[in-house]
């Protein structure tokens, strides 16, 4: 007998979802992602003299392993250094934080389509709108240099940590191993 496989594709629900529902579900997704991927801070800082060492000939593999393992922590560090670079400009900090929150809620952690006034807003429109809003906010606030400095410092801190943190003994969970391509997912026969 031949088995008939029906191809399925992911489709959006046809039930209109209010913007407040989209935001609450996005907040839930953000919280779940952080709780799943954020490593304990003492583990990031290391305990003992063996946690940090000069990289041997495999510094790229060490940096890659640490980047995968601590990616959520590195994102928090970069966001914090960016926010600290704007501490002297409270209105700019508030506006840039609001735009950052919009990116997280409306683009990165949104599952359902955004429906405004009965019309489904395309992902491309959301992306372009958020990009325009980001550029406009940085331009109006005049904090490009400060923000670039904060981002640069955060990237340097994370890069130095990724190179110097001994990656021996750091293990990723099964979901991370599958998503990074380290192992293949089990298939049913």
Automatic annotation (TrEMBL):
Transmembrane regions listed in the UniProt entry: 72-105, 125-158
Annotated protein name in UniProt: PRA1 family protein
Highest taxon in the source lineage: Eukaryota
Entry annotated with the keyword Membrane: yes
Family: Belongs to the PRA1 family.
Annotated Pfam families: PRA1 (PF03208)
Topological relation to the membrane, as annotated: Multi-pass membrane protein
Function text: May be involved in both secretory and endocytic intracellular trafficking in the endosomal/prevacuolar compartments.
GO cellular component term, pick one: endoplasmic reticulum
Taxonomic placement: Eukaryota, Viridiplantae, Streptophyta, Embryophyta, Tracheophyta
Keywords: Membrane, Transmembrane, Transmembrane helix, Transport
GO biological process: vesicle-mediated transport
Compartment(s) of residence: Endomembrane system; Membrane
